[in-house]
Design a protein that fits this description.
The protein is mostly beta strands and about 220 residues long. It has one helix and 19 strands. The protein has one helix at about 1-20; strands at about 35-40, 45, 55, 60-70, 80-85, 90, 95-105, 110-115, 120-125, 135-145, 145-150, 155, 160, 165-170, 180, 185-190, 195-205, 205-210, 220-225.
């Protein structure tokens, strides 16, 4: 009985200690993890834990992992340099590899750039001063003859990130139309009429298809992640 009582006492003490562990000693959320990248080529980015390009953050402490993907063998080198309010001035070297920073961000606008190509490779984001307007990406759709396409720039869309999109559709056919269908979306032009339409849509994760209601073989698909 004495041994059982001692075991019970130790269990109660252990539970109390677990409750009293300070917040600073508990595992932290990964929501404050950011990933920066510079290179290959002349690209630079900072993304959140969901892989989205950072445009606005809440103020607070962040852990930033920066990957320098430049290749000195090509004669082109880069670095990642973050500056902004609160005395933030953090930079990697020009050597390829991974660097980590722990930083506290306060209200204001921050800039990150490559010091070797500051005019060509730079971006900004805001912290704590109200939500910025959503980034709306432009896509162009077209149906004409025996062709139906949806492009981002000059490339056929095969995969997109979740978010808001402005889709300008040029329906140049009187025999077909342009019908976009997927999670939460079903938008189409008219079969017998030519014309243009502009849709501002929020695309969610899943599979989307665009096709002609008159000829279902005229069809393409893409994914949103």
């Amino acid at each position: 009985m004495r041994q059982i009582r001692m075991s019970l006492v130790m269990l109660v003490v252990g539970l109390a200690a677990a409750v009293l562990v300070p917040a600073s000693a508990r595992p932290q959320s990964t929501s404050n993890e950011l990933t920066g990248a510079v290179g290959p080529g002349f690209t630079i980015s900072l993304r959140d834990a969901n892989g989205n390009l950072v445009s606005h953050l809440a103020r607070g402490a962040y852990h930033i992992t920066v990957k320098n993907l430049s290749d000195p063998a090509t004669g082109v080198v880069h670095n990642f340099h973050l500056t902004g309010p609160g005395g933030v001035d953090l930079a990697t070297t020009a050597d390829p590899g991974t660097t980590t920073f722990d930083v506290t961000l306060v209200d204001g606008t921050y800039r990150y750039q490559c010091d070797f190509h500051p005019l060509q490779m730079h971006k900004t984001f805001t912290v704590g001063i109200g939500a910025p307007p959503p980034i709306v990406t432009k896509l162009t759709g077209r149906v004409a003859g025996n062709s139906i396409t949806l492009k981002k720039g000059t490339a056929i869309v095969k995969s997109l990130r979740r978010g808001q999109y402005s889709i300008v559709v040029n329906d140049a056919s009187t025999k077909d139309n342009f019908h976009l269908k997927g999670p939460g979306v079903s938008k189409k032009t008219s079969v017998p009429k030519r014309g243009k339409a502009t849709w501002t849509l929020t695309l969610r994760a899943g599979k989307y298809t665009y096709f002609s209601d008159a000829h279902h073989k005229l069809k393409r698909a893409f994914s949103v992640r």
